């Protein structure tokens, strides 16, 4: 039989296209080779009422080749319009594992409240020409009434005519299953996936489905889609006559990948003192040693779960004494976990460990604090970075770990636009462009940076229930602060507003109209603008500018005055100068310093920016969320601005004026950090991409601490107290601490867990439910029908069974 007859049956296709097509697709994996009539216990659809659909389904097993029972895809789809069809085929990753695809009438599935993986909504055929057939794609989109959509196009190459008919049909059904699973994961193959040479017209991209398993997490990136638009794909089955299907995402969302696993260990500990802490750590070593010599994959997961449970129990109101010591062990293996504990025990056992324990943390993320070294309560400050911190493949892992959060954000606004995902993705695909992120326009950097902060804030607040006591922003980060913390009513409106605003396109960037007006330049005069980071004080830089002016005659001085150099930002031991590139380089030469060029066109924090201060105030005059003053979050959080000595009031005018003044006036970030510290902030958590701002905060805190330290040094804590001095741990506590939630140099999840570990050790209130849920999901898969999980108590080595392990709403 020819490929033509395998991929399409003219009469059947005509019947399918004669009316609307809407079929629901469900993918059921059964690694245990359970009965095809029974839904696998570990399948994400286990709680859905699929029993009735399965009971009515006709069954076709493609793993068994039976003579005279050849089926064609078109005929299966036609049959599925009236009756569910359950197709069983061999799982491509394992010959002894089965995959089942259930195709049913969409209306029937909806009435039963079943959440489909995907919907098949259109079909068409066309004459093939080198595996390319734009006409069949366009005809299928027309049948699906989605001609206006630019879908992602998937292709399955033509199979040699000698191939078995069942194998060909199996490839087609497997292709449907793969795309359906990509829909549930809201993901697409990364740039290194094999791209088809032929790209049908009207398609965003063309991806060839080969035998490789494209559903593996490490091969996927998030599939962004415009607001209120479903993901749409076309699947073209190539042959002598191509067959194209239109597939639309269903309502089923994939289960989140667990944050913790046997390869990502996070062991928290609470204790009354260092002696009890040592006892628990030694107990961990013993248990980990036993686990290392067993093949039980669930043993380590149970240990992590028990540790989290105990850490929650230790600070519940019913617990008589507050924990005075906290630690978290982070590792990628049992062996590394043991090494991390040994290193921590060495610090605890040291004769004089005050300095080491005051801020103990390892590169792996393990950390330790006592009540003398942990920060006081109600001292958490979210710090929002400015523009220029985003990078290619930013947050590329978050989608599969927090699918519900991403779905929530997509329902509120255009998530891809908010993160400038397409632009950053193009940089990631082209290594030559990867270094050109700094060349992104100011508006693009502002949108992406604000979007990154918005997402991380939602993650910390909605997933881990962490609310700051204070909040502040670096430069444009102040606007991100108000948008992210739920003060502004419709923060997503800022994306389009910023994209089209003359302020960010022409006035303080682009043509730099405000600079032209200040310097009295014409429209066609060239401005070579740049900014440089230089390790020098504000006074040194101003001295260099003044010295240059004195060295020149009156005419030259006027020329220097025209080609302005501005001290835009003061940030610890460095400053940012901006203005005419030639004049900036003259100042650097006078200083005898080398500056790091930002190569970014922005006149923020310079005198010309003051010309548009009122326009900026109007731009940020946004409605306040209803009840913003009454919500627990806003009641708990005090907002700090570089433009005000006091907390900013929660009203439209005060907020707009604060943001405008911060962006136009020179920024003294050192004073802003000092102000936040004076007002009570001690834990400064950067909520944004990378860790540039937390590095600055740490340097400022360290410099201030060194200046405040008494010149008379003490070698022992007792000696310090006898002389009325602060011990080293008390100095560290008074100094404060800067923590990053994300770093470009590490993976997203590890960076996040390191941040959570430090917050845990400083006893910041948070929920660990999400960590527990992921562990329980894995344990259910590994230990179905096993004995209930048992918990080790801290008081003894006895084992007791808890009344509940889930700990919904538990606060840490």
TrEMBL record:
* Coiled coil feature spans: none
- Superkingdom is Bacteria
Q: Which SUPFAM superfamilies match?
A: FabD/lysophospholipase-like
Q: Name one GO molecular function term.
A: transferase activity
Gene3D superfamilies per record: 3.30.70.3290, Malonyl-Coenzyme A Acyl Carrier Protein, domain 2
Q: Where is the Malonyl-CoA:ACP transacylase (MAT) domain?
A: 383-746
The record's annotation in InterPro entries points to: Ac_transferase_dom_sf, Acyl_transferase_dom, Acyl_Trfase/lysoPLipase, Omega3_polyunsat_FA_synth-like, PKS-FAS_Synthase
- The molecule here is called PfaB family protein
Q: Which species does this protein come from? A: Shewanella maritima
């Amino acid at each position: 039989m020819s490929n033509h007859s395998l991929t399409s049956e003219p009469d059947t296709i005509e019947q399918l296209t004669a009316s609307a097509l809407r079929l629901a697709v469900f993918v059921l994996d059964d690694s245990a080779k359970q009965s095809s009539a029974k839904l696998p216990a570990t399948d994400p659809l286990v709680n859905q009422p699929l029993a009735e659909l399965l009971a009515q389904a006709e069954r076709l097993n493609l793993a068994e080749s039976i003579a005279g029972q050849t089926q064609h895809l078109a005929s299966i789809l036609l049959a599925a319009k009236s009756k569910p069809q359950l197709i069983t085929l061999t799982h491509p990753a394992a010959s002894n594992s089965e995959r089942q695809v259930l195709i049913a009438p969409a209306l029937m599935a909806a009435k039963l409240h079943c959440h489909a993986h995907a919907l098949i909504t259109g079909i068409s055929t066309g004459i093939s020409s080198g595996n390319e057939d734009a006409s069949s794609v366009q005809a299928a989109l027309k049948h699906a009434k989605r001609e206006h959509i630019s879908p992602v196009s998937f292709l399955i190459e033509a199979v040699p005519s000698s191939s078995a008919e069942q194998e060909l049909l199996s490839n087609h059904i497997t292709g449907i299953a793969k795309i359906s699973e990509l829909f549930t994961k809201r993901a697409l193959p990364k740039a290194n996936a094999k791209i088809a040479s032929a790209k049908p017209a009207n398609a965003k991209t063309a991806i060839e489905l080969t035998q490789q398993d494209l559903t593996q997490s490490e091969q996927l990136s998030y599939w962004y889609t415009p607001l209120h638009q479903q993901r749409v794909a076309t699947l073209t089955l190539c042959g002598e006559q191509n067959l194209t299907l239109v597939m639309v995402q269903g309502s089923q969302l994939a289960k989140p990948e667990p944050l913790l696993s046997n390869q990502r260990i996070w062991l928290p500990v609470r204790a009354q003192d260092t002696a009890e802490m040592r006892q628990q750590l030694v107990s961990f070593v013993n248990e980990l040693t036993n686990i290392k010599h067993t093949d039980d994959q669930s043993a380590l997961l149970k240990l992590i779960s028990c540790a989290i449970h105990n850490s929650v129990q230790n600070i519940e109101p019913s617990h008589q004494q507050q924990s005075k010591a906290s630690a978290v062990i982070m590792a990628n293996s049992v062996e590394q976990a043991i090494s991390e504990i040994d290193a921590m025990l060495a610090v605890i056992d040291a004769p004089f460990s005050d300095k080491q324990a005051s801020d103990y943390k390892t590169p792996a993320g393990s950390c330790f604090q006592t009540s003398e070294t942990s920060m006081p309560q109600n001292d958490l400050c979210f710090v929002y970075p400015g523009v220029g911190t985003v990078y290619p493949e930013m947050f590329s892992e978050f989608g599969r770990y927090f699918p519900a959060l991403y779905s929530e954000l997509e329902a509120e606004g255009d998530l891809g636009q908010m993160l400038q995902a397409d632009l950053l993705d193009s940089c990631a695909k082209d290594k030559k462009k990867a270094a050109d992120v700094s060349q992104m326009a100011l508006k693009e950097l502002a949108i992406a940076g604000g979007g990154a902060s918005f997402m991380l804030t939602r993650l910390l607040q909605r997933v881990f229930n962490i609310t700051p006591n204070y909040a502040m922003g670096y430069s444009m980060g102040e606007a991100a602060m108000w948008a992210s913390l739920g003060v502004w009513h419709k923060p997503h409106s800022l994306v389009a507003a910023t994209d089209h605003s003359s302020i960010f396109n022409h006035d303080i960037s682009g043509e730099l109209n405000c600079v032209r007006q200040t310097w009295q330049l014409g429209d066609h005069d060239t401005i070579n603008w740049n900014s440089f980071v230089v390790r020098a004080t504000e006074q040194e830089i101003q001295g260099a500018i003044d010295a240059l002016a004195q060295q020149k005659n009156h005419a030259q001085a006027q020329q220097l005055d025209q080609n302005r150099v501005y001290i835009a930002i003061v940030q610890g031991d460095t400053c940012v100068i901006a203005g005419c590139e030639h004049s900036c380089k003259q100042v650097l030469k006078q200083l005898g310093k080398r500056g790091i060029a930002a190569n970014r066109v922005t006149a923020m924090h310079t005198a010309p920016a003051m010309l548009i201060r009122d326009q900026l105030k109007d731009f940020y005059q946004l409605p306040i969320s209803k009840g913003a003053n009454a919500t627990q979050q806003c009641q708990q959080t005090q907002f700090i601005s570089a433009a005000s000595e006091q907390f900013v009031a929660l009203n439209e005018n005060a907020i707009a004026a604060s943001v405008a003044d911060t962006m136009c006036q020179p920024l003294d970030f050192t004073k802003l950090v000092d102000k936040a510290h004076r007002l009570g902030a001690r834990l400064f958590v950067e909520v944004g991409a990378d860790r540039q701002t937390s590095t600055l905060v740490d340097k400022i805190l360290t410099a201030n601490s060194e200046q405040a330290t008494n010149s008379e040094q003490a070698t022992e804590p007792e000696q310090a107290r006898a002389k009325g001095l602060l011990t080293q741990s008390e100095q560290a506590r008074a100094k404060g601490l800067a923590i990053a939630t994300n770093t470009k140099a590490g993976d997203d999840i590890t960076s996040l867990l390191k941040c959570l570990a430090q917050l845990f050790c400083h006893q910041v209130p948070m929920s660990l439910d999400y960590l527990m849920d992921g562990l329980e999901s894995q344990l259910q898969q590994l230990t179905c029908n096993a004995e209930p999980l048992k918990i080790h108590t801290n008081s003894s080595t006895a084992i007791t069974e808890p009344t509940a392990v889930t700990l919904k709403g538990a606060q840490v």
